[in-house]
Write a structure and sequence with these properties.
Elements lengths: L6 E2 L2 E2 H14 L17 E6 L3 H12 L4 E8 L2 H14 L11 E3 L3 H7 L4 E4 L6 H10 L3 E4 L7 H17 L3 E3 L7 H11 L6 E10 L13 H7 L5 H4 L2 H16 L7 E7 L14 E7 L5 E8 L6 E8 L2 E6 L4 E5 L3 E2 L8 H15 L6 H20 L3 E2 H5 L5 H5 L32
Parallel strand pairs: 3-4, 3-6, 4-5, 6-7, 7-8, 9-12
Antiparallel strand pairs: 1-2, 9-13, 10-11, 10-17, 11-12, 13-14, 14-15, 15-16
This protein binds nicotinamide-adenine-dinucleotide.
The site of nicotinamide-adenine-dinucleotide has 26 residues, from helix 2, strand 4 and helix 4.
């Protein structure tokens, strides 16, 4: 049953939530200590699937959104990850952490068990390779969803997310995305100005996300392939999508936001691995440079690099016929040109908290947020860039979105199996060769 229409006493839960929502709506950006949800005694039970760094943060933020949100269930593939996350969540919100051994689930079916445990909202923060399957299961079961980015690693996954997003809309379920910049006041302000025409018609959007190396978990003798890859999921495309899709996608999402979510017509890309070449880095690239072309003639440029001891940058330049907008992540934001403007000071508001404040308020209001279509498109634009860089070809949007390449099925030797791929601990896994432009085919 859709939880928004469940009966609560003699009153439908939905009408209850709608009546109590006015207070929640009035102050969606204010932290729980200053927000009055006193009139709202309806509890929203949350389940977390993927209890790593981000999932643990998202759980705290979900509880921080509204004092009648409780943690009810948790699921992970590894017990140590679940226990350390639960400990941190308890330390932050002891009184509202209701998770027990009966609502703690470990294994590939943890998602099913969390869903079946009686939760209203599921937070999805596993490696993204599992995400489309998890999103679909949640929406089919009538659960509201907060999903971390990226929402897929290949085109079949993106299409699945788009279908789930349409179903969520029909069922009035929230499908809120972890593309957190879209929830940040400074980025919202500059994007509003861009969309209001203050820099004129856009001709160039340049986004850059250059960082250093990330974590590696050295292989232990007792680990089989599945354990090793899951402990090092970042370096395998079936789990992460490559760093472009995993992290650069934040910047590509801002490009898409500036472009009003118009999808690019085609993309050409360069990339490779120059520094992160050892086997501990799996088969992903360490740099990408991409050029997207839009129907209007505008071009989008994206640069991502993960090489230590190189210049870092996380910023965007958006040029139009009347001016240029500049966004430095966590730094200055402004416009130069006919309508010059500078944001004096970023607020202290935490975009990660705002996502959850707005999601919970939207659920209580009976008007759940659905970020589904644009978030799936942004992920597809990143996947399209990976396709272009891996193959060395010009890749059109139509080729990209219609691609049949299912990375999880290829890795698990299930290419000819209908339906979702099956996962178990002992299955042999294939590792794709590092892509070589001009040789790697477009599938
Ligand atoms: N929006 C942001 O700014 C932001 C920041 C950090 C991470 N993220 C995203 O959050 C996701 C997780 O990143 P992280 O840094 O927390 O990684 P992490 O490795 O710390 O956490 C992932 C967790 O998922 C678990 N897991 C793996 N497969 C699973 C499965 N099939 N079922 C249940 N649990 C499973 C892992 O054991 C691990 O505990 C990624 O998609 C990442 O891009 C987003």
């Amino acid at each position: 049953m859709n939880p928004t229409t469940m009966r609560v006493g003699s009153q439908s839960r939905r009408s209850f939530l709608q009546k109590s929502s006015a207070i929640a709506v009035a102050a969606p950006f204010i932290s729980v200590s200053r927000t009055s949800f006193a009139a709202n005694s309806e509890t929203l039970k949350v389940g977390l699937v993927g209890c790593g760094g981000r999932g643990t943060g998202a759980a705290s933020q979900a509880m921080g959104a509204d004092r009648n949100v409780v943690m009810h269930a948790m699921g992970d593939i590894f017990d140590d990850r679940l226990q350390s996350s639960l400990k941190q969540i308890r330390e932050r919100h002891a009184e509202r952490t209701m998770v027990t051994p009966e609502t703690s689930f470990v294994g590939f079916d943890a998602i099913d068990k969390v869903i079946a445990s009686g939760v209203d909202v599921v937070l999805l923060a596993t490696p993204p390779g599992f995400r489309p399957y998890h999103i679909r299961k949640c929406i089919e079961a009538g659960k509201h969803v907060f999903t971390e980015k990226p929402m897929a690693v290949d085109a079949p996954g993106v299409r699945m997310v788009m279908e789930a997003a349409a179903a969520a809309k029909q069922k009035k379920l929230a499908l809120t995305s972890g593309f957190c910049w879209r929830y940040n006041p400074a980025e919202r302000e500059v994007m509003k100005r861009i969309h209001d025409g203050q820099i004129g018609a856009l001709n160039t959007v340049q986004t850059t996300f250059n960082t250093g190396f990330l974590w590696v978990n050295p292989r232990k003798p007792e680990w089989n392939d599945m354990t090793y890859q899951l402990r090092n999921w970042y370096y395998f495309t079936w789990l992460s999508g490559d760093h472009l899709v995993e992290q650069g996608v934040h910047s590509i999402d801002k490009m898409q936001w500036a472009m009003r979510d118009e999808t690019p017509v085609k993309c050409v890309g360069h990339g490779g691995r120059q520094v992160r070449t050892g086997p501990e880095f799996g088969h992903i690239f360490d740099h990408f440079s991409l050029v997207y072309e839009y129907a209007s003639g505008a071009r989008g440029y994206h640069f991502s690099r993960q090489q230590s001891n190189t210049a870092s940058e996380n910023g965007d330049h958006i040029a139009g016929t009347k001016g240029t907008a500049t966004i430095k992540a966590f730094g200055p934001v402004g416009i130069t040109g006919e309508n010059s403007w500078n944001l004096r000071k970023r607020t202290d508001a935490d975009m990660y908290q705002i996502e959850h404040n707005e999601m919970m308020a939207s659920i209580r209001r009976g008007e759940p947020i659905n970020d589904g279509q644009w978030m799936a498109q942004s992920v597809m634009v990143a996947i399209m860039g990976r396709m272009a860089a891996y193959t060395g070809r010009e890749v059109t949007w139509d080729e990209a979105i219609n691609s049949k390449e299912n990375l999880a099925k290829w890795v698990t030797n299930q290419e000819n199996v209908e339906g979702d791929p099956r996962f178990d601990w002992n299955m042999p896994l294939r590792v794709p060769p590092v892509a070589i432009p001009g040789q790697t085919p477009l599938v």
